[in-house]
Specification:
Elements: E1 2-3, H1 5-10, H2 24-32, E2 35-39, E3 44-46, E4 51-52, E5 54-60, E6 63-68, E7 74-80, E8 85-86, E9 96-97, E10 101-104, E11 108-114, H3 115-124, H4 127-151, H5 155-170, E12 171-174, E13 177-181, H6 186-193, H7 197-209, E14 213-215, E15 220-223, H8 226-231
Antiparallel strand pairs: 1-2, 2-11, 3-10, 4-9, 5-8, 5-11, 6-7, 6-10, 12-13, 13-15, 14-15
C-alpha cells in the first residue's frame, strides 16, 4: 500500500460524492490518511464473510459485488464504478464481515481509509455520514429490486430490468438511441440475471428481432425502443 501522492496533487477525491462538498484543505487532510491500491482485472479485492475494517473508494475502474448461491453459482448483486464506495458497514460496527465478495471487472485503483481514520473524518464533517447513509440506502433499494426481479420466472422481465439498470448507470444518448457499453461479459450478465449464458444470448436475439435493441459486438447494446423495453416490466 502506498499513500496516494497523485491524489494530493490533483485532489481526485473531489470526484467522490461523499467528499465533494469539502474544501481543498479538508480533502488534503483526508488524502493524507488514505492509502492507494491497484488491482488487475479479475483480481479478488475481498471475500464474502472476510472481516473488514476499511472503507474502499473507487478512484478509477469498476468492480462487481457478488454472493455465492446455495448451488455454488455466482450471483452479481452490484456493479460499482468510479466515485462509488464499498465496505461502509465497517464504519458502524467493529470486525464487520463482508456481505459480498468484491472482484475487479477492469483494472481498478482504490483509495482505502481505515475505520479509525474515517471515524475521525466523520467527527469533523458529520455531513459525510449522511452521504454514506444515502449510499447505503441506494444499495439496499437496488438489492430489493434485484430480489424482486429474480423472484419472477419470466426471463424477459429479468433481462429488461438488467438492461434498464445498465442504461441508468452506463447509458449514453446518441442520435440512434441509448448506447450502453456493458461493464460485464455475457457470462456475467447471465450471473446477474440468474440464468444460463445460452438463455441470455437467446433472449438478447429476441429483443433484437423485435427491434428493441441492437447488439454491437459482445459488450455493447444500443436501445432503439426504450418504451417497448420498459413495457416488459410494467
Amino acid at each position: 500500500m502506498n499513500h496516494c501522492e497523485k491524489c494530493q496533487h490533483k485532489l481526485c477525491a473531489k470526484k467522490v460524492p461523499i467528499f465533494s462538498f469539502l474544501s481543498d484543505d479538508e480533502i488534503r487532510e483526508i488524502v493524507s490518511k488514505t492509502v492507494n491500491r491497484h488491482y488487475k482485472k479479475g483480481e479478488v479485492i475481498c471475500f464474502e464473510d472476510e472481516i473488514s475494517n476499511s472503507l474502499y473508494i473507487i478512484n478509477d475502474g469498476r468492480v462487481k459485488l457478488t454472493k455465492l448461491t446455495k448451488d455454488g453459482k455466482e450471483q452479481i448483486v452490484h456493479i460499482l464504478t468510479t466515485g462509488d464506495f464499498f465496505g461502509e458497514l465497517a464504519l458502524f460496527t467493529e470486525n464487520t464481515r463482508n456481505n459480498f465478495s468484491v472482484i475487479a471487472i477492469t483494472d481498478v485503483r482504490l483509495c482505502i481509509l481505515g475505520k479509525v481514520s474515517m471515524d475521525n473524518i466523520i467527527m469533523k464533517n458529520p455531513k459525510i455520514s449522511l452521504k454514506i447513509l444515502n449510499g447505503v440506502a441506494k444499495k439496499l433499494c437496488e438489492v430489493e429490486n434485484l430480489a424482486q426481479t429474480l423472484a419472477t420466472n419470466d426471463i424477459e422481465i429479468r433481462l429488461a430490468n438488467m438492461i434498464i439498470d445498465f442504461q441508468s448507470k452506463f447509458g449514453v444518448k446518441t442520435p440512434n438511441g441509448i448506447m450502453i457499453h456493458c461493464p460485464i461479459t455475457r457470462e456475467e450478465m447471465a450471473n446477474y440475471a440468474g440464468v444460463s449464458r445460452e438463455t441470455i444470448s437467446r433472449k438478447l436475439r429476441k429483443f433484437t428481432d423485435l427491434g428493441i435493441i441492437e447488439l454491437k459486438g459482445t459488450k455493447t447494446i444500443l436501445i432503439k425502443d426504450e418504451l417497448m423495453l420498459k413495457q416488459f416490466i410494467q
